[in-house]
Amino acid sequence: MRATSALALALTGTAAALPTIPFIAPTDVINITSTNTAAIVARQSTAKACFVIGSTTLPAETADIAASLASTVTCSTSKKTISGVPDVTSGSTTFSSIDFSQSSQTPLQFALSKFATASPLASTDLQTFQDQLNVYQATEAGIRSVGGSLAIKVPKFFLEMQVSRIQTAQGNPPTAAGLQVDHLRDKVLKNAPKEAQSLLNQVTQLATQLK
Fold first, then answer.
1. For 95, which DSSP code?
2. 166, 203 in Cβ contact below 8 A?
3. Which contiguous run of DSSP H or E holds residue 77?
4. Does the predicted model carry a pTM greater than 0.70?
5. Is the pLDDT of residue 31 over 80?
6. How far is CA 52 from the centre of its chain?
């Protein structure tokens, strides 16, 4: 009997020494104020973009661009282009009217001939080139969302370079590193390994002409 009482006392002492486990926390376990709300807003905007028709996750940069274009680019309800992406319009420019994939030229040949700037460079209509870039970027986002071919990157990057050149010539050079003429020149060249050297040389030359 004494042994039983001693054991009970020992167990009682051990239980008292054990720490209390807080099964219910007094505050939220996840601090919701630390959530990246900007990223959530971007994803929501991308989901609303009419040209993002698939479920493949977009690269962050593409998702940001798609979100920024969601309210400015419109989609045709009857006409589709590359990979089933709706024909998109920005301003007065519709993608189908400048679709490189419908040309017999290579993507870079098409870009060099179709998206040539005026002389002098500063007199080029920046808005027209921006609208052309918008529809290319929107279509690329749509293609990526369904895992389609990305041949569009060559003319898209070329258009980006042209926009950067025009902005620079007009006295408003872009400040972001990814939008600098030299960086975009390299993007064009990197994505056009099968293009003729003479065409690549033209891109390199254009990148030096900023007036």
1. G
2. no
3. strand 74-80
4. yes
5. no
6. 11
